[in-house]
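# step 3/5: fold
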Amino acid sequence: MQADTLNRPMRDLRISVTDRCSFRCTYCMPREIYDDHEYLARSEILTYGEIARFARIAAEFGVAKIRLTGGEPLLRREIEKLVQELSDIDGIGDLAMTTNGQLLGKQANALADAGLDRVTVSLDGIDDKVVRAMIDTDVSVDTILDAIDVASDAGLGPIKINTVVRRGWNESQIIPLIEHFRGTGHTVRFIEYMDVGTTNSWKSDEVVRSADLLTQIAQKWPIVAVGQAYRGEVASRYRFEDGQGEIGFISSVSEPFCGDCSRLRLAADGTVYTCLFASSGTDFKLPMRTGASDDDLAEILLGVWAARDDRYSELRGAAPLDFPRVEMSYIGG
């Protein structure tokens, strides 16, 4: 298993299959910027065959988990064909997808049949008014909740529900979200509002610390910490003492987890990034399309990971960092 300069293994591959999304979440793709945004042309995006080729090479270096992201991955036509190709790769033990849920109800069964193991659904509240303000899109919460039920029935569970918490926007939704999903087998994970990219108007005073949420939740339901399931698990997990499930916290701002980060990121245009907060990456599309062999690509990938020394979240805590960063809609969450 290949390690980087900080002895972190290459274990997880996140693949952004498109830079397009049907939502305009204020913390990711604000409407005032992305309504007039020029998206990648189809010719600029990796084909499914190219994506699968890269994934096979990454698997040779120890990647065992793949997550499909976007943008919104379900906007990519016939995405189940890519799922099928990836599910057939030796060494991949977990194939997941993160989606906004809008199209999930219609596609869940096809995805499960193709080999997808599970889905994570982004949902920032349970109240329509609050959620519509967060996503700046006219989509009802019931649409997402119904899709979660369909996905669960299709075998894509237990499902994780990712909730970005932004002060002044949706703190009121913490308890209602938990009340809705307690006892269902699904897990709500609260994510600190992060400074991914430079277009989401991030301010540190809009971050709600996970520790504060934990205190609030524990006042209503007794909970106990659960140990990491594997090295590099980004969520801190807690179970309800009454046996009604788990919750999680992803705390990149207040409790950085750079030291165990094992994630490699492939953007839709074939650029590879070694950090969610990266400012630049390595182009794999050009060598793929100009005759590079698998051995050539493997050598490039080996060099990229061996030189990796990213730890943005840890450094951010010591002093403000101000430089251009790739947008979340482009690199995936």
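# step 4/5: annotate
The mean pLDDT is 92.
# step 5/5: archive (pending)
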